[in-house]
Structures are given as C-alpha cells and as structure tokens.
Amino acid sequence: MLVLVAPGQGAQTPGFLTPWLDLPGVEDRLREWSAAIDLDLVHFGTNADADEIRDTAVAQPLLVAGALVCARQLFPSAEDFSRPVGAVAGHSVGELSAAALTGVLSETSAMELVRERGLAMARAASVTETGMSALLGGDLEVVLQHLKKLGLTPANVNGADQIVAAGTTAQLAALAEDKPEGTHKVVPLKVAGAFHTAHMAPAMTALKSATAALTPADPHTRYVSNQDGRILTSGPEVLARLVSQVANPVRWDLCMETFKELGVTALLELAPGGTLTGLARRALPGVAALALKSPDDLDAARELIAHHASGASASPAE
User: Fold this and answer.
1) 43 is catalytic
2) Residue of 34, 82, 92, 133 marked catalytic
3) What is the pLDDT of residues 46-97, one digit of tens each?
4) Is residue 179 within 8 Å of residue 135, measured between CB atoms?
5) Does 162 lie in the same domain as 245?
6) Which residues constitute the domain of residue 41?
7) Which one from 34, 97, 133, 196 is the annotated catalytic residue?
C-alpha cells in the first residue's frame, strides 16, 4: 500500500521550484496562485535566498505550492489520485497540502488558507523571540521530562528518535548547554517561531476566523491527522484540526504507526522531499521510501506508484 506525505516548514531550500517551472502549466498555475494570495511564488521559489524563504509567511505557502504542483504531475485528477494512494498525511503545514490532495479543500482555497496561516503564525512569533531545535537520540520519556524542566514544549514528536523542542530563545540556549541524557545532538531549525505551542494561540484564533466561510468536503482518500494519527473521514473535522493544530504538538510518530497498521509498503514524499523519507527509513524498516526533489525523480515515483498501488482502493473509512 502506498502512502503519500507532504513536508513541513524547514524543508524549503533556495531555488527548489526552479526545475519544476520547466514542466507544462506549472508556471501558469504558480502565477495564478500568486495573484490569489498576493505573494510571488515564482520569485520566492526560484530567486529568493535562504533568509527570505525562512520567513514563515513565505515558507508556508511556498511549501504547499511545491507539494501541489509536484503531485499534479503524478495524479492529474482526483480519480487518478484516489485509485493508487492508500493514505495521505502532511507534516504540520503539509496538512494543508494533504487537505487539498484529498479533496477537502480546493487547491486555491488551500493556498489562500495557508497564506493566512503563515501570516498569522508570523505575527504570533513576533511577540516573543522563540524558535525550535531538533533533538536526536535519547529515551522518549527522559527527553520529555528534561524539556518540561527547561520550560520547553515537545512541538513535534517525529519518531525515529527525533523530537523537536520549541520555546523562547533563552530556553533553547539552555537546552543546547544541557542536553537530555542519551541525546546525541541538538540542532537549531530554520524556522522563525515556536510553532505548535501556546505561543501560537493568537494564530489559532485568526485561523478559526479565516475558515468560517469555507465548506470542506469529506476526504476521498484516507487522511491521517497529525494530532493523534487517527484517520479522519469528515471534512469539517479535518478543517477544525487544521485550525487547532497550529498551537498543539505534531505527533508524526503516531502517523507512522497508523501507516504501519494500514500495511504500508511504500512511502512517497512530495517536493521538497527528504525529511519525512529519512524518518520513514528509520521507523518503517522494509518500506520503500522515495523523496521527490526535482522532476528527475518523477519516473522513479511512477514506478513506485505502479508497484505499490494494489489494495489502495479501500474507502477512507476503512
């Protein structure tokens, strides 16, 4: 069974959209979305430097746009998508990509919503100087207790011995000096705030207002939620969780547990892929994993889809 995943903030790299613009229709689609959200996705995806695309208000729409244009090359229609794909999930902002891919939101609505999300989270992040750091290695309970002692939040529990801590810069500096026992490394992330923590409560309020006029459809393919790894079958529930998730931890470890329970045999990560594929290779041994980084990877992706599509036609409720 094939699982499709969309990356979250921090996966972006300068120029990652450049090779995709050579494909028919991609630049037109990006310019259409750019006009809708008042953000030049072509510029930021091709010519902007690392500091420019680190901006939350830029990075989030850029990542969703990248995932959607990449997925369109493999799955031109909803039927093309739902037939071979057994389940879909996105990490953090990647959940907006997943919502569009499963038909909960239109692509344009997802782009408009992610623009609002990025702006709201950027505003919330500007109130206090905050950030996030990844911890590699260590016993889960030991790490969680240590973070609690330092006043930090386990914002992403990613599995594969990786937890992302979030909090003020002072708290993160204390963590760098005082790692939990068994942790090999603490790596500061290229994000501009303590996402998925109480620091994002104002963003959650803004996002709730932004979604009030939306009418979501039920997902046509299994949608796996970051909140608890549960499969959601209701469009309104997906939308409600997209709102609440900005201020609550991402449980990617539980998403991967659900993939395992569903019988995943292959995982395909949309552009700019790499992070989630790496986690899957460590947490889901024996599962084929492929990251889409450029159009050069599309043929390999098509082969993976063809080989692992069997059994993916079950209904989202199963």
Assistant:
1) no
2) 92
3) 999 999 999 999 999 999 999 999 999 999 998 899 999 999 999 999 999 9
4) yes
5) no
6) 2-125+198-308
7) 196
